[in-house]
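Support request from a user on the community tier.

User writes: "When I paste my structure tokens into the form, the page sometimes reloads and wipes my input. The last time it worked, I copied everything first. Here is what I submitted, just in case something in the input itself triggers the reload:"
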């Protein structure tokens, strides 16, 4: 099982490097999309925590 995880990680790393080398503009778009997703998720968690802190009132 551990060996399969190592192989999968290796394949993902090779794929990421391939995309970066062959098409850096598209790779930059993927990175931007990833950061945007993380930012939206953090904002949603913050909104939820604010809602909880206010006693669940809208």
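"...and here is what came back when it finally went through:"
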């Amino acid at each position: 099982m551990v060996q399969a995880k190592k192989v999968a990680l290796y394949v993902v790393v090779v794929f990421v490097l391939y995309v970066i080398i062959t098409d850096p503009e598209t790779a930059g778009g993927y990175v931007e999309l990833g950061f945007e997703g993380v930012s939206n998720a953090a904002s949603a968690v913050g909104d939820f925590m604010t809602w909880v802190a206010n006693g669940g009132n809208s």
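Agent notes: The reload is a front-end session timeout and is unrelated to the input. The two ends are 47 Å apart (CA to CA). The chain has a mean pLDDT of 91. Escalated to web team.
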